[in-house]
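so my prof wants the structure for this chain in the tokens format not the other one, which i didnt know existed until like an hour ago. anyway here's the sequence
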Amino acid sequence: MTRALPDREELTAVRAMARRGELAEAGRRAVALRDRAPAVSLAWGEAAHLCGSIAFEQGRIEEAERHFEEALGIARAEGDDALVARATTNLGSIAHLRGKDTLALSLYRCALIAWRGLGDAAGVAQVSHNLALVFREQGDLGAAATAATRAVRAARASGDTALEGTVRLGNVEQALAEGALGRATAELDHARRCAEAARDGLGQAEAARLEGAIALAEGRFATAVRRAGLGQRRALRLGGLQCAAECAELAFRASLMLRRVRSAQRFYHSAALGYARLSAGPALRRLETRSPT
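here's what i got, hopefully its the right format
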């Protein structure tokens, strides 16, 4: 195996492009990076991981999984602990999406140990945010709150504004789960400012969805439909399939409350199609329990 090193400048540029939501062009440049790298090299592994990250955002989950596993194998062989941690974190996200939460938690905890060992605040923030999401869905709000607090603290330490926005969005979800609507609104304002400052297009789409979620919790159903619909349109424009599906599900729920049958059916089918493409079995089953037909 060759020690050919990755093109750090181009990797950074492509990651920034993907974060802004320019997924199609980022994907093309990531593939070009991979194709230029020597086969079975660290440079190839870094580029493959980047291809996987973009594929994941676009909903090509099996392709993403293949890239992450390839990157993980190369990282282990080369002794690159940071790439091992990144690939492990993302494989955990795929496991969670598929409803394999025991596996997801195991992978996330392994990654957390690795990120702490590396002293990488951004990695700790991301994986702690992911852990909080799983705990929250399992109903363990105490563990979720602990992980979410750690995520915010680490994101601040990293100096990564977009990442802080992401973990603040997780705090909105946490506050909603606890019924703390005032805190949810305050966290959303902070998250939105971070996303705008970082030009994080998908973060802004997610912020629109969560504004709709707050409106739904407050009984402002028409506002919930409008904000979730805006988030869906933004996410689809950027190629963010999971965000778009979650926005559509929220708009469907709010439309049901308004007894707008056609609107509910349209959003339901959009969400169902998105979750099916993502192989997101738990989300699809949750949606189907509320089927309008």
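also thought this was worth mentioning. The domain at 1-100 is CATH 1.25.40 (Serine Threonine Protein Phosphatase 5, Tetratricopeptide repeat).
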